[in-house]
């Protein structure tokens, strides 16, 4: 099986698509200066090779009355069972958008949204700290969002800075 290598045109497609995943193939092909058929073929190959994981609508927490954004550092028991149980549980907590296993003093970092302090308190006291294996949780609240993007940097793939085709607004 031949190894797939992305070129500058593929990088342009990735950059444009990650800024606006709702573009039609015709609009995408125009933005990357490629005719529609080869553009679609390249896009499908980028999807099948795993460069594009999926497409999603980015919702506004503010509009949805989720005004309290928190980062929660969690320490758990060091057993394999505790780690597995925690990983399974965190996947079922809708408040938690992402969870990262970390090096250092904290085992996990949760990024979560809540309607208010009451909802946050309920989550921490009744869900998180009551979970077996969780030893401690420390929280920080977001005061201001300076940058929030889903766009990954791509310039390193060909050792040069990529021209910006589409600006993405923080959501």
Automatic annotation (TrEMBL):
SMART domains on file: HTH_ASNC
Gene Ontology CC: cytosol
Residue stretches spanning the membrane: none
Biological processes, Gene Ontology terms: regulation of DNA-templated transcription; response to amino acid
GO MF term set: sequence-specific DNA binding
A Pfam family per the record: AsnC_trans_reg
Record's protein name: Leucine-responsive regulatory protein
HTH asnC-type domain segment(s): 6-69
Organism: Kingella potus
Designated gene of the protein: lrp
Keywords: DNA-binding, Transcription, Transcription regulation
InterPro entries the UniProt entry points to: ArsR-like_HTH, AsnC-type_HTH_dom, Dimeric_a/b-barrel, Tscrpt_reg_AsnC-like, Tscrpt_reg_AsnC/Lrp_C, WH-like_DNA-bd_sf, WH_DNA-bd_sf
Record's keyword annotation contains Heme: no
Keyword DNA-binding among record annotations: yes
């Amino acid at each position: 099986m031949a190894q797939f290598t992305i070129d500058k045109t593929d990088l342009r497609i990735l950059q444009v698509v990650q800024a606006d995943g709702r573009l039609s193939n015709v609009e995408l092909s125009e933005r990357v200066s490629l005719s529609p058929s080869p553009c679609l073929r390249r896009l499908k190959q980028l999807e099948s090779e795993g460069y594009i994981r999926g497409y999603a609508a980015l919702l506004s927490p503010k509009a949805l009355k989720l005004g309290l954004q928190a980062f929660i550092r969690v320490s758990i028991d060091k057993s394999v069972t505790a780690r597995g149980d925690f990983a399974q549980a965190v996947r079922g907590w809708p408040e938690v958008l992402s969870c990262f296993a970390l090096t250092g003093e904290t085992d996990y970092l949760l990024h979560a949204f809540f309607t208010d302090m009451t909802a946050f308190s309920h989550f921490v006291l009744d869900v998180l700290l009551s979970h077996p294996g969780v030893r401690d949780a420390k929280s920080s609240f977001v005061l201001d969002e300076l940058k929030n993007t889903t766009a990954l940097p791509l310039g390193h793939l060909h050792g040069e800075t990529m021209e910006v085709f589409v600006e993405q607004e923080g959501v």
